[in-house]
Design goal:
Layout: E1 7-8, H1 12-17, H2 28-44, H3 63-76, H4 90-99, E2 103-104, E3 108-111, E4 114-117, E5 125-126, E6 137-140, E7 143-146, E8 154-159, E9 173-178, H5 192-195, H6 199-202, E10 210-211, H7 222-227, E11 228-229, H8 232-242, E12 246-249, H9 258-270, E13 274-279, H10 285-292, E14 297-301, H11 307-314, H12 319-330, E15 334-341, H13 349-363, E16 369-373, H14 388-401, E17 406-409, E18 420-421, E19 428-433, E20 436-440
Parallel strand pairs: 9-12, 10-11, 12-13, 13-14, 14-15, 15-16, 16-17
Antiparallel strand pairs: 1-8, 2-7, 3-4, 4-5, 6-7, 8-9, 18-19, 19-20
Helix pairs in contact: 8-9, 10-12, 13-14
Bound molecules: iron/sulfur cluster and zinc ion.
Length: 459
Amino acid sequence: MDRAKGFRTTNEQQQELFSERACRSVARRRFLLYGACAAGCAAAVGGSYWWRHRSGGAQSHSWTESFKKAFIQTFSADSADVFKADAPKGELWEAWQRRGWVREARHYLKLGKNIHCKLCPNECRLAPEDRGHCRNRVNKEGILYTLAYGNACSFNNDPVEKKPLYHFLPGTKTFSFAISGCGFRCLNCQNWDISQRKPEESKDPRGESLRLRPETLRRLTAEDIDRLSLFPEDVVELTEYLGSPSISYTYSEPTVWYEYMYDTAQLARQRGLKNIWVTCGYIQEKPLRELAKVIDAANVDLKSFSEEIYRTLNTGKLEPVLRCLKILKEEGVWFEVTNLVVPTYTDDLQMIRRMCQWMVNELGPDWPLHFSRFRPAHKLTNLPPTPASVLIEARQIARESGLHYVYIGNVHEVDDAGITYCPQCKKELIYREGFFVIRNELKGGKCPSCGRKIAGVWA
Ligand code: SF4
Ligand SMILES: [Zn+2]
């Protein structure tokens, strides 16, 4: 579990200043009604209708084909609840723009002044002044904007093992950062104080602007962190200064600050740095394939193997996450999977067996699986931590299912929780304690005993 540490802002002043923007969710039916009326009007007035896909650019469809496609896409899929009339206004909106923390979003459709966001499977429909389910994207006069750009609220130079990634540049550090926002509402979220906040609740655009640079890193105050900017070029410069070979997009859900992540990753790639996406895997295919071109590794939370549990525990769906894993494999991105075992929710061993069998059959046996211990958090403080015995049983099931690399995380009492064994001769290859590599005996990515190639990115 990649728990946010390092610096983080809470910004109560900001909440007071802009408290009139109380969030209000509405049922999707009401918005569909508005949207349907808008669509009807658009059809009636003929030429007033237009649509375009913001990410694709090309507009090769005829008017009627385009209308049909947009109508079907807009009204056929489920939409998550959104924050009605909650976009920042007046002084706050202007301050956010002055800071450069507003950018036009990518991956959305327009229907008149209404918007259909196509970034994640939440499929938000936004009327003007609405804010998306993730809290980061707002419709201003028919244009979708992200409020999460260049304004990290949390950053730290972490061991890569903390993501967790055990088969990707082991023993190295990765510069990790986040801005708030998430498309899920997990009852057990361990980073809820970032993920379940709006960018305006974690950053303060007032006062002098300040960009984080290597020379300012050691003199920062808490107030500085509230207002500082960390644009893609700053992230890359800092990572180089710290000597870390990679950047991690992590702590909250980086998919919902896609533009910030993508632009940083693209620049980092040009400068020879690697990119790590720590995610719940809740993203549409088109932005995912685009992102896959600039990332090198991912840790994907597979939260359970049940649509019902995804719905009740996480307010999401399982199927898009499974699709995400398959696409990462197709696109050649190294990934590892984390499964948080939450007592009474996701600790059904039969379900865990089905999940492992799916991984072996659909992905293959070489993708590492990390079982992670739940600790009471957010709305599930009534539950106990996962017993170590359950995690050990889950690991045994995963091994029996055929997975080659299975780990247990967030535990101290299991001695071999973080050891990589050769799947062929069973030699102990990498020995870890917590997030630290104590011994690494791999030679050129191979077992020194039997010569078997060990899956991963080793240099
Ligand atoms: S990225 Fe945000 S606005 Fe877009 S569909 Fe997902 S939750 Fe909604
Ligand atoms: Zn071996």
